[in-house]
Amino acid sequence: SRMQYSRHAVLTDEKKREEIEEIIGMPCSGANPVVSFLEIFSRPEVMEAVRSKLVKNLNGLKVACYYGCLTSRPSQIARPDDPENPMQMDGIVSLTGAVPVPWDFKTECCGASHQVDAPKAALPLIQRILNNAREHGADCIVTACPLCRYNLSKYSADVPVVYFTELLAQALGVEEEA
After folding, report:
1. Is the pLDDT of residue 143 over 90?
2. Per-residue pLDDT tens for 70-93?
3. What is the pLDDT of residues 127-136, one digit of tens each?
4. Which tens digit of pLDDT belongs to each residue from 9-26?
5. Which secondary-structure segment (H or E) carries 64?
6. 3-state DSSP call for residue 112?
7. N vs C: which end of the chain shows fewer Cβ within 10 Å?
8. Residue 84 Cα to chain centre, angstroms
9. Which residues of 129-162 are buried (b: 16+ CB within 10 A; e: fewer)?
10. How many whole angstroms separate alpha carbon 62 and alpha carbon 174?
């Protein structure tokens, strides 16, 4: 997220680009794209490669795909497939045989870094997300963001919170020790 914001600043703000070039002591064009693991794994050719290597069907596992705010907003920087209802992670989860549950808070903010500096402000946001996932029958929540995973798992005793890549690893038969 921060790398996407920085690239956007370099591409759209001449003054920022000059400041960054001064700090790093070299030209900075922003020519190289910033690509997330979520974007990579949702590419059709990658999804097909994953599909061909699946060894365990997670059939019946109900998953709340949580994108949070950092992977969906602002849309011109985060580039979700749909800012209001992103589906990239849902597609990846479906590959495993698990079932993405429709729910209301897939792009709501979990408080982001406020869990560190203002936990009382973040807690209600986190609780709303967890409660909504439970209400919609989720067995687990998957996310692509380390901050979201930290915030949600800190207060979720009954609904595991994992990275989508951990769910993929399970379906690919990767041993937990690995």
Report:
1. yes
2. 777 666 776 767 778 889 999 999
3. 999 999 999 9
4. 899 999 999 999 999 999
5. strand 62-66
6. coil
7. C
8. 14
9. bbebbbeeebbbbbbbbebbbebbbebbeebebb
10. 20
Tokens of 28: 């900075």
Position of tokens 């003054």? 15
CA dihedral 127, 132, 135, 137 (to 10 degrees): -110
Q: What is the pLDDT of residue 115?
A: 78
CA dist., res. 78 & res. 73, Å (int): 6
**What does pTM read for this prediction?**
0.87
Q: Is 53 helix (H, G, I), strand (E, B) or coil?
A: helix
Length of the chain measured in residues: 178
Count of C-beta atoms within a 10 Å radius of residue 172: 14
